[in-house]
Amino acid sequence: MVYLKINLMKNSITIIVTLLLSGIQFPVFAQTKFQTMLNQIAGLETYLKSTESVYSTTSKGLNDIHDAKNGSFTLNQNYFNSLKSVSPAVKNDPKIKAISDLQQQIQTVINNALSWQHSTTQLSSDEATYMKTVYTGHTVCHDVLLGARRR
Description:
The protein is an all-alpha fold. The chain is built from five helices and no strands.
């Protein structure tokens, strides 16, 4: 669209300059009107160049912001991914194996207690729910430690 406007202005200027150089005499009124139009065309060309400059600067600025944002996001993502990996010193520590074995024993006891509760129904529903909540918490801790040991 901008290209069409520029070509239209170039063609208009070429026709006007050709008419002037051919020696055709315009009345004074037509000459002032013609001069006004030439001034308007010059003003529009200046406005067009200014607009293109602002667009270019804005586009470059937005691209810089986008690049900075993606760089920061990548750094944060890399940091959080590094937190997921377990240090070899921790992974191979015998204390971790001992803790994991104890948690497996706790899990076995809780499973036995839950099945006992299910078969005898001696606890209230609130007490049974609490036991299941404790079981879920131990399962999560156990999974985290086992995951650290397996990596």
